[in-house]
Amino acid sequence: MAQDTVFLADETPQMLEAFKKAQNTFKYFWRESYWECHRTVPVLDMANVKVVFIQENPAAAPLVEYMWIGDVDFDGIRVKGFLINNPDVLSNIKKGDAVEIPLDKVADWIFAIDGKAHGGFTVQVMRAGMSKKERREHDRAWGLDFGDPNKTLVAYEQEKHPENLIEHPMCINTKNSAEDFMKKNPGESTSKDELGYTRLHRETIAGNKALVELLLQMGADMNAKTNEGYSALDFARKLGWEHIIPILQG
After folding, report:
1. Distance (Å, whole) CA 14 – CA 2
2. Which SS3 state, helix, strand or coil, does residue 142 take?
3. Same domain, 141 and 170
4. How far is CA 3 from the centre of its chain?
5. What CATH number does residue 177 fall under?
6. Cα–Cα separations (whole angstroms), residue 249 to 55, 165, 239, 244
7. 10-residue block means of pLDDT along the chain (250 residues)?
8. Most buried residue, 5, 27, 71, 204, by CB count within 10 Å?
9. Which candidate, 74, 37, 49, 28, places its Cα nearest to that of 167?
């Protein structure tokens, strides 16, 4: 992946819209990352998030830099990862540092499967202003195919299988094995981790309707709250998983 830092000191309306789209669709990035952790054989070529970093500058305007983080984790509230860029203007962070930011500090996200990029909203804004030759050179530098700059994909094979926009195929394909596991491990549907998250919380954050339904059938408490007071329904609403919200409303 190209490791260049992207500067957006004076954001255009197109770029601001790209930020908004990236934040509103981040759930698809996380859903794919979630299932990548459950695969025996990884399929993602990359999965990174672009974050806005701001450093106060007493002598002038704050310094702003947009950089990428990798090894991304998400708890439904905060995005976490490690900086993979060397800052050009900031001095309060360095490559390799741990990063934890709220979702509204996400500027973009990209995951790639078989060399095809998904997400990359800000990248597509920049590509839209390039010639075809420049776009080919740009994509070659990244080692990815970003496709039509006016069309940004968010789910694998969504054009061939639009149902993938609603439910990840792995969720459907693993439901039977998940049910067998829960029957053998009845505490799986009700136990909490040290942060108060149940499996129902985690599956809801990842948008896994079939597993949310299964967990409720197996006795999961839809009213259970994390240590910070969030229910599964809170996460479904926050992330806009419209296919799960009615289920958790009872």
Report:
1. 22
2. helix
3. no
4. 19
5. 1.25.40.20
6. 42, 22, 15, 9
7. 44 91 97 96 96 87 91 97 94 95 94 97 96 96 96 96 96 95 92 97 98 96 97 98 95
8. 204
9. 28
